[in-house]
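Q: Give me a protein?
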Amino acid sequence: MTKLLKIAFLFLCVTGFAQSKVGTIDVDYIISQMPELSSVQKQIEDYGNGLDSNLLKKLAEYQTAIDKYKTDEVSLTINQKKGRQDSIIAMENDIQKFQQNGNQLIVLKQEEYLKPLYEKIGIALEKIAKAEGYTQVLMRNNDVVYIDNRYDLTLAVLKELGIEIKEEE
C-alpha cells in the first residue's frame, strides 16, 4: 500500500510541475526605460545636493569655531578652553556621523522615489502573468542559470506600461 502511495505522490508532483509556467523579468532594464526615471534621478540629485549643502555649513561652522578658539585661546580660562574644546570635538563627531549617514540617506531616499515605479511594474507584471498563465516569475539576473527568452516578460511589461523600445541596429 505504501508503494502505491509513493507512486501516487510522485505522479502528483510531476503533474504539478508540468502545470507550472515560469517566466523571467529584467526589472532594472524596465526601470531604465521608464520616462519617469529622469525625474527620480533629478529628485535624488537635488536631495544629495541638499545634503552636501548641509555638510558644507557644518564644516564652515566647525572651521569658524576652531579659528575663534585659536584667536581667543590666550585669554580663555581653563574651564572656557575645556568647554570650547568639547564643543569642537562634538562638532567633529557630528560631521563624521553626518558623512557616514549621508550615503545611507541617499539610498533610502532613492528607494522612496523608485517605489512608485516598482509598484507600477508590479501591477503590469501581475496583469500579464495572470493573463498568460504564469505561476512563477523570476528576476533575470546572475542567479538564473538558463533562460529561454520566449518566457521573458520584460518586453511584455514594457508594452503594458506603454513604453516603446527602439530596435538596436
Q: What stands out?
A: The chain has one domain: 20-160.
